[in-house]
Amino acid sequence: MPTYAYACRQCGHRFDAVQSFADPTLTECPECGGALRKEYGSIGVTFNGSGFYRNDSRAATAGDSSSSGGSTPTSSASSKPEAKSSPAPSGS
């Protein structure tokens, strides 16, 4: 069940409450009986470990370059300089 942070608007009392998604929002401060507000902080989700990247969900093949540091085809293509040709001058 999620934990919600509440703060009283009158006395400033802060506390956490473990509530179900179906439970109603708390409205009364347990200290002074004043109005509560729900506080929202940063999201507590972090993506650690394997399985969160595009190359983690694929099976390795014989020609796979994952053992060379996980470089992708776009990174190796960007290291090559591109030769841009300019249009040939017309000689009349």
Walk me through the structure:
- The chain is 7% helix and 16% strand.
- It is built from 1 helix and 3 strands, in the order βββα.
- The protein has a 3-stranded antiparallel sheet with strand order 2-1-3, with no helix packed on it.
- The termini are far apart.
- The mean pLDDT is 73.
Sequence-ordered SSE layout with sheet pairings:
Elements: E1 3-8, E2 14-18, E3 36-39, H1 73-78
Antiparallel strand pairs: 1-2, 1-3
Summarize the structure.
The chain has 92 residues and is mostly beta strands. It is built from one helix and three strands.
- Kindly provide the radius of gyration, computed on alpha-carbon positions and rounded to a whole number of angstroms: 29 Å
Determine the number of helices (DSSP H or I, runs of at least 4 residues): 1
Strand order of the largest sheet: 2-1-3
The number of distinct β-strands equals 3
- The whole-number mean of residue pLDDT values reads 73
Order of helices and strands: EEEH
Q: How much strand content do the residues show?
A: 15-25%
The low-confidence parts are: none
CA-to-CA gap between the ends?
81 Å
Main beta-sheet strand count, sense and barrel state: 3 strands, antiparallel
Q: Tell me the structural class.
A: mainly beta
Q: What spatial form do the alpha-carbon principal axes imply?
A: elongated
What is the percent of helical residues? under 10%
Keyphrases for this structure?
7% helix; single chain; mainly beta; three-stranded antiparallel beta sheet; 92 residues; 16% strand
